[in-house]
Amino acid sequence: MKRVFVCANIVIDLLCERYPWFPKVLRIFSMGDLGQIELFCSSLSLGTASYIMETRKLSTQDIFDGIALLCKMCTPTTVNKSVVKNALVSGYDGAEVRIKNNIASRVAHVAHQPA
């Protein structure tokens, strides 16, 4: 089964129903729900998504429900010292991209949205 790593922007697009990306992101998560692909995200994406949902004035319960639903569809991965250390010497531009791609290279293909 194909393993797909989704970045924070895709997680936020799903949980906040951000357009114009929401329909495409919903399709990715539907494929995961149907068992066609296996989804992964960074554990950092959960905190980032929670923060963005708070800025959009979602209730605490809606935020918790969204994160719980995400965790049923997507396996959070760990960001540890090794990931950061390897990311610092990678050839990608920007710290966030280096860390994201280092995590993703360990588990899956990368699906990302520009910020």
What is the topology?
Layout: E1 2-6, H1 8-15, H2 22-33, E2 37-42, H3 43-55, H4 60-73, E3 74-77, H5 81-88, H6 95-107, E4 109-111
Parallel strand pairs: 1-2, 1-4, 2-3
Helix pairs in contact: 1-2, 1-3, 3-4, 5-6
For the termini, the CA-CA separation is: 28 Å
- Strand percentage lies at 15-25%
- Succession of helices and strands: EHHEHHEHHE
Low-confidence stretches: none
Instruction: Quickly give the structural class.
Output: alpha/beta
Tell me the total number of β-strands.
4
The strand order across the widest sheet is 3-2-1-4
Helical content (DSSP H or I, runs of 4+) = 55-70%
Report mean pLDDT, rounded to a whole number: 81
Radius of gyration: 14 Å
Keywords:
115 residues, single chain, alpha/beta, 6 helices, 4-stranded parallel sheet, globular
Describe the model.
- This protein is an alpha/beta fold.
- Helices cover 59% and strands 16% of the residues.
- It has helices spanning 8-15, 22-33, 43-55, 60-73, 81-88, 95-107; strands at 2-6, 37-42, 74-77, 109-111.
- It has a 4-stranded parallel β-sheet with strand order 3-2-1-4, with helices on both faces.
- The model has no long low-confidence stretch (mean pLDDT 81).
How would you summarize what this structure contains?
The protein has 115 residues and is of the alpha/beta class. The chain has six helices and four strands, in the order E-H-H-E-H-H-E-H-H-E.
